[in-house]
Specification:
The protein is of the alpha/beta class. It has 8 helices and 9 strands. The chain has a 5-stranded mixed beta sheet, with helices on one face. The chain has a 4-stranded parallel beta sheet with strand order 3-2-1-4.
């Protein structure tokens, strides 16, 4: 497998991206080919400093960068030489099998929809995050910021996509799915939450165990493998709490 990496996206790029590459190459089963996409003038000294072997990577120069504050569609149209635009071009033309970026989330959404298209039947992509649980296992929370406004059908699809990920990647045979809401009772929440819960109850997929509404606390307990409708405040609130307890 060949994986394209946007080396210019995220905090403290490209330094942290180079550290991530070094960590991956040090793993026992690191058999993927890496294509590092970014500004060579900034990347090359870091690759040398961290002793990244040249035979394990390929560097593709990108002279432009899509910043976090830029409008996604406009930026992708105007910045054809940006790391994200080049990354999606390599993916769409079959030169890479996957593309990863910690950069502009909106640009990744637009690029995914217009460069490689969604799987047939999928209404919208989603972003998930691994949530650690008290018993040492992991759960999944999504959506975590890619879609600010969703329809019930989209949230219901997130449940299915997240469950497939839980099965194939985390090895959970029968994922337990909950809808994040302000209360556990069926009548709680806004119209979106109530309509989504109705769709979940009508779901005919017998390999998914729906737990109906859940509040914030079970996210970190053992009772649930996956939550969706994951209001953005959960991620930012959890991040802020972690920073306050363990300051940098």
């Amino acid at each position: 497998m060949t994986i394209g990496l946007d080396m210019m996206g995220g905090d403290f790029a490209p330094l942290e991206a180079v550290k991530g590459v070094l960590q991956y190459l040090g793993e026992q089963n690191a058999d993927a080919n890496l294509v590092l996409i970014g500004n060579k003038d900034q990347m090359d000294p870091l690759l040398v400093e961290h002793q990244i072997p040249n035979n394990r990577i390929k560097v593709v120069h990108a002279e432009e960068l899509i910043d976090m504050h830029e409008h996604p569609t406009k930026a992708l149209k105007e910045k054809k030489k940006s790391s994200i635009a080049i990354g999606f071009h390599l993916l769409a033309t079959g030169k890479t099998d996957a593309f990863i970026s910690a950069g502009n989330t909106g640009a990744m959404l637009v690029g995914a929809l217009f460069s490689i298209k969604a799987i047939e039947g999928v209404l919208r992509p989603t972003i998930s995050s691994i949530i650690p649980k008290e018993n040492g296992t992991s759960g999944i929370l999504l959506d975590v910021g890619l879609n600010a406004d969703c329809k019930p059908e989209q949230l219901n699809q997130f449940a299915v996509m997240g469950s497939v990920y839980a099965q194939l990647i985390l090895g959970i045979d029968s994922p337990r799915v909950g809808l994040l809401n302000v209360g556990e009772e069926e009548g709680k929440g806004n119209i979106l939450a109530q309509a989504t819960l109705y769709l979940q109850k009508s779901c005919c997929l017998n390999w998914i165990v729906f737990l109906k509404n859940l509040q914030l606390i079970p996210i970190f307990l053992c009772s649930v493998n996956y939550l969706h409708g994951g209001f953005i405040f959960v991620m930012h609130g959890t991040y802020s709490l972690a920073i306050s307890i363990y300051p940098a």
